[in-house]
């Protein structure tokens, strides 16, 4: 009609062309053809097309013929009220579906039909593959519940092909205009019954008369109920006797037909058509039929159906059963792969005891790559007792099994498609993947970001153990840059150590070979000290000493009294101390050379107790004193010893 409309526009020159001729002929053909609307045929497939606009809803119910053509059976439209006009486009399209289905309920209820919409999201939300999301708005969930009573297959159609429903939505009828009001007595409903339904009202009447139990109940209804009933099969009917009646030879309880036993299997098959499930089968049955064991028979029918049993939903999750806590660190490891992430794979290892995580970039997911990575980890931390992993090819391979058997490691494979059994590794993979994605957002190097994440994770208290993984693994936290904020205690410790050593002794005691000393005697019935001679010096504080009886002893410097320091509290005796303080140079075989005079002066200075010094200074003095000891210095010591021996003989 567009070419003809163009001729009617203002300031357009009249020109009849070929397009106008074709449009004119097509219009005459349409006007001379049969009416567009077709009579409803229950044997033909039904197609319901819906659409919505900013202010209206439209729906067209059509039936499809054998040649593929479609003719409408009924059209409907209405305007949106003020609240509905504020709906989102998704809610408007869903409202159009609900409007079209409710409007044509008498045609659609109880049979399958095709539902067409030009809004693609609804084909996924209301489709058979996915249910309504739990996060969807409550309005959309209510629409889904209302539509669940119908058997339809939703299809997406382009807006260009949905022009008839689109036109109705843009030219909606006013709901209060041209509406005919009639009395309830003038209203009648036309119900469509499929001719191929296996049962009819007459069949139920005939079988009711043949059924021994229902025929007796029929007599009770017609001629009166007994006061009591002791028959077990009659109790269910006796309890409902007030609501049981007879209509055209059939027993009716409320508005539900009581089915005889011979027809119950056929009714169950009809209700189970489409495999709706136990709950929906009970809902359908409670609208039409009843017998005393209806619910039990429905449950048994669904449980025995092979198709329903093969597509059952997963059972309720079992009670949480945690892994036993390992006895020590690195005893049980959980393994899993992360990737591909930027075309890279990572092997994630979690210690179940400390929650310590190891992440390594691997070149592939083969068993050889996994073994090589584990070999490096075992060289650092040792062999674990058990490894837990999924059923991936590298973990279930014979090569990996052989490697674990050689090293005495038990391998536990979790159930397939049940990642929660390896939850420690799965959670670690999630955390690492999240850290890598954050690095991408910050344009940070992936390896650098991974190292930072692992350092922070290992030094942070874990929610399960209540302790840092590094503390459980190494007994200490990892030193980080934040530790620089704390004051350094090394200087304070060094000062306290020097004070303690000064209190211990103000002079270092040294004994040389051939020195006469008193050594501690631990023999019974003998004195506390005995005389001896130093044989050799084993270490700065350990000596080998020979006693007068010829026995050789190993003594610490604290177990020896030397004669080198006359003012020391470790001198032999008061007499010996006086022997060291010799002022008569003639009584000592003193060398005559000037060099010997210098040595004697050094010897005299060495007898004096040095002032209090630090540990390092005293150690330097000790070393210098040892180097200054020469054979010439021993002359004075031997003279002093000879004097001591003479004093003892007196």
Automatic annotation (TrEMBL):
Positions of the UniProt region annotated as Disordered: 584-635
Residue ranges the record marks as coiled coil: none
BP terms from Gene Ontology: DNA integration
InterPro entries, per the entry: DNA/RNA_pol_sf, Integrase_cat-core, Integrase_H2C2, Retrovirus_Pol_polyprotein, Rev_trsase/Diguanyl_cyclase, RNaseH-like_sf, RNaseH_sf, RT_RNaseH_2
GO molecular function, one term: endonuclease activity
GO cellular component, one term: DNA polymerase complex
EC number per UniProt: 2.7.7.49
Domain Integrase catalytic as annotated: residue spans: 325-477
Source species, domain of life: Eukaryota
Family matches, as PROSITE patterns: INTEGRASE
Keywords annotated in UniProt: Endonuclease, Hydrolase, Multifunctional enzyme, Nuclease, Nucleotidyltransferase, RNA-directed DNA polymerase, Transferase
PANTHER family from the UniProt entry: PROTEIN CBG26694, PROTEIN NYNRIN-LIKE
Name of the protein in question: RNA-directed DNA polymerase
Organism: Parnassius mnemosyne
């Amino acid at each position: 009609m567009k070419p003809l409309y163009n001729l009617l526009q203002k300031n357009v020159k009249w020109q009849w062309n070929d397009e106008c001729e074709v449009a004119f002929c097509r219009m005459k053909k349409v006007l001379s053809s049969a009416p567009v609307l077709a009579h409803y045929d229950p044997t033909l497939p039904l197609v319901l097309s819906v659409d919505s606009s900013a202010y209206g809803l439209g729906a067209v119910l059509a039936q499809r013929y054998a040649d593929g053509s479609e003719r409408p059976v009924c059209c409907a439209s209405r305007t949106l009220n003020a609240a509905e006009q504020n709906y989102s486009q998704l809610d408007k399209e869903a409202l159009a579906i609900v409007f079209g289905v409710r409007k044509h309920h008498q045609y659609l209820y109880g049979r399958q039909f095709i539902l067409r919409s030009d809004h693609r999201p609804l084909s996924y939300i209301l489709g058979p593959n996915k249910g309504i999301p739990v996060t969807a708005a409550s309005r959309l969930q209510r629409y889904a519940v209302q539509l669940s009573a119908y058997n339809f297959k939703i299809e997406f159609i382009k807006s260009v092909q949905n022009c008839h429903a689109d036109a109705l939505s843009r030219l909606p009828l006013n709901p209060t205009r041209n509406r005919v009001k009639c009395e309830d007595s003038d209203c009648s409903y036309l119900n469509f019954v499929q001719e191929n339904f296996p049962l009819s009202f007459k069949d139920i009447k005939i079988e009711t008369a043949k059924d021994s139990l229902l025929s007796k109940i029929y007599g009770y209804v017609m001629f009166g109920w007994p006061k009591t009933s002791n028959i077990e099969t009659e109790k269910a009917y006796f309890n409902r006797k007030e609501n049981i009646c007879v209509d055209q030879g059939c027993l009716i309880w409320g508005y539900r037909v009581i089915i005889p036993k011979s027809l119950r299997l056929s009714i169950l098959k009809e209700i189970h058509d489409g495999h709706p499930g136990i709950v929906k089968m009970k809902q359908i049955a409670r609208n039409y039929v009843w017998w005393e064991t209806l619910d039990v028979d429905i449950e048994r029918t669904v449980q025995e159906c092979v198709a329903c049993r093969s597509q059952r939903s997963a059972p309720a999750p079992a009670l949480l059963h945690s892994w036993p806590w390992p006895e020590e660190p690195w005893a049980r490891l959980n393994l899993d792969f992360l990737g591909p992430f930027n075309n890279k794979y990572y092997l994630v290892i979690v210690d179940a005891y400390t929650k310590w995580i190891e992440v390594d970039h691997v070149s592939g997911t083969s068993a050889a790559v996994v073994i090589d990575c584990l070999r490096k980890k075992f060289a650092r931390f040792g062999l674990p007792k058990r490894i837990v992993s999924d059923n991936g090819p590298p973990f279930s391979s014979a090569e990996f099994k052989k490697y674990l058997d050689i090293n005495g490691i038990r391998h536990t494979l979790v159930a397939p498609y049940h990642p929660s059994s390896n939850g420690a590794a799965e959670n670690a993979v999630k955390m690492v993947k999240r850290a890598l994605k954050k690095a991408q957002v910050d344009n940070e190097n992936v390896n650098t970001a991974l190292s930072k994440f692992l350092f922070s994770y290992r030094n942070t208290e874990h929610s399960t153990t209540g302790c840092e993984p590094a503390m459980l693994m190494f007994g200490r936290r990892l030193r980080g840059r934040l530790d620089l904020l704390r004051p350094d205690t090394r200087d304070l410790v060094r000062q306290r150590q020097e004070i303690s050593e000064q209190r211990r002794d103000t002079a270092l005691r040294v004994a040389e070979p051939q020195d006469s000393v008193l050594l501690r005697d631990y023999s019974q019935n003998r004195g506390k000290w005995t005389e001896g001679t130093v044989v050799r010096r084993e270490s700065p504080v350990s000596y080998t000493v020979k006693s007068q009886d010829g026995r050789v002893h190993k003594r610490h410097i604290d177990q020896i009294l030397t004669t080198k320091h006359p003012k020391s509290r470790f001198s032999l005796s008061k007499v010996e101390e006086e022997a060291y303080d010799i002022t008569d140079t003639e009584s000592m075989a003193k060398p005559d050379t000037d060099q010997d005079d210098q040595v004697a002066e050094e010897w005299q200075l060495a007898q004096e107790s040095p002032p209090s010094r630090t540990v390092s200074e005293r150690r330097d003095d000790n070393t210098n004193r040892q180097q200054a000891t020469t054979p010439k210095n021993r002359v004075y010591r031997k003279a002093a010893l000879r004097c001591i021996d003479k004093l003892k003989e007196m």
